[in-house]
């Protein structure tokens, strides 16, 4: 059950369709650490830092303890947003 859902989240995120990835995530009856991390990664790779932070907070509320990777993903997404803004200001 986890494997297919997690793969779909990853695939849609990598294809740029993070909203569909979120629909898959929301439709999963149960989630594991990979589900939460995959969704945070999807938001992170597309610069959606607020959503990554929301997932991070909800993961903790659901009783999952963040590991090193899941802790850094929201930070990565926020840094991507800051870098994009900095580059835009340079133009």
From TrEMBL:
PROSITE patterns: PPR. One of its GO terms (biological process) is RNA modification. It comes from the Eukaryota. One of its GO terms (molecular function) is RNA binding. Keywords: Repeat, Transit peptide. It holds the Pfam family PPR_2. NCBIfam families: PPR. This is Pentatricopeptide repeat-containing protein. It comes from Dichanthelium oligosanthes. The lineage of its organism: Eukaryota, Viridiplantae, Streptophyta, Embryophyta, Tracheophyta.
């Amino acid at each position: 059950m986890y494997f297919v859902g997690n793969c779909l989240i990853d695939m849609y995120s990598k294809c740029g369709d993070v909203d569909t990835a979120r629909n898959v995530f929301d439709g999963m009856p149960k989630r594991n650490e990979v589900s939460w991390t995959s969704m945070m990664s999807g938001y992170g790779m597309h610069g959606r830092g607020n959503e990554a932070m929301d997932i991070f907070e909800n993961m903790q509320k659901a009783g999952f303890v963040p590991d090193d990777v899941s802790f850094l993903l929201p930070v990565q997404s926020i840094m991507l947003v800051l870098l994009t803004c900095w580059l835009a200001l340079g133009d």
